[in-house]
Amino acid sequence: MHVALVNTNRIKPPIAPIGLDYIAEALNGAGHHVSILDLCWTDEWGSAIVNFFDKKDFDLVGITLRNTDDCSYTTRHSFLGEFTDIINMLRQTTQALVVLGGVGFSVMPEQVLGRCRADAGLWGDGEFGFVQLADKIESKQPWHDVAGLILAHGDRWRRRVRTCLLLGAGSCPSCYRTP
Ligand code: B12
Asked: For the chain, which residues make up each domain, given as ranges?
């Protein structure tokens, strides 16, 4: 299937979106077609999004949130305002399923999802879960049970419990920081 991965990290000096590269590689390995939109280098992220999604239809869009904020006591700059604007614009631009992920997202996933109009989130590392999601959607299997997936349930977000891939169920501490 055609998958778009979007880097929303626009902080300068820049760093490469290595997390998305890992996921792209895993998706490629599973036979999916991946395109990456890196918003770090655009002055106008709105037109970059429109141009990118005008050229091709995608079935699945994965968006990374690396930093919720700059974690600096003196500046206390939050990136969530611009991130929310980007997601809401993307939501208007594509019909694909929009899934959030990334280390910043995974710090407080339900709170991030509550702010914007994404369809779902995937907590933690994405190489396995996101590929599983793409595989299941492509083969028209139910995909709501993918481990780590967070979906709306009424007016709340519900997270699928994720167990450690290496050690198996019950061998790892709970992933949850909050109930
Ligand atoms: C290395 C590092 C740095 C290095 C980066 C060097 C480089 N050239 O890349 C340096 C020192 C430069 C740095 C700087 C900063 N960092 Co830093 N950094 C890290 C660290 C230790 C590892 C990040 C990393 O590369 N991980 C490896 C990659 C492969 O993993 P990943 O990006 O998380 O991606 C995986 C998953 O998140 C997921 N995923 C990612 N995207 C997506 C998308 C989808 C759709 C899905 C499903 C999954 C998914 O799958 C990926 C593969 O497994 C993390 C802490 C940590 N342990 O994660 C902090 C961390 C990310 N940094 C943090 C911060 C705050 C910063 C700065 C803002 C600090 C500052 N004030 O300057 C800057 C921002 C720089 C920038 N331009 O963005 C915070 C963010 C916290 C938050 N609340 O948002 C973290 C979490 C540290 C912390 N605990 O506070 N950082």
From this structure: 2-159
Give residue-wise pLDDT tens across range 40-90. Answer: 999 999 999 999 999 999 999 999 999 999 999 999 999 999 999 999 999
Q: Ligand 1: which atom is nearest the Cα of residue 100?
A: 45
72 Cβ inside 6 Å of ligand 1: yes
What is the identity of the amino acid at 143? W
Find out whether the beta carbon of 60 lies less than 6 Å from any atom of ligand 1.
no
| 136 φ/ψ angles, rounded to the nearest 5 degrees | -70, -40
Homologous superfamily (CATH) for 2-159: Cobalamin-binding domain (3.40.50.280)
List, for residues 90-114, the tens digit of each pLDDT value.
999 999 999 999 999 999 999 999 9
Nearest CA to ligand 1 atom 8: 15
Neighbours of 155 (CB within 10 A): 6
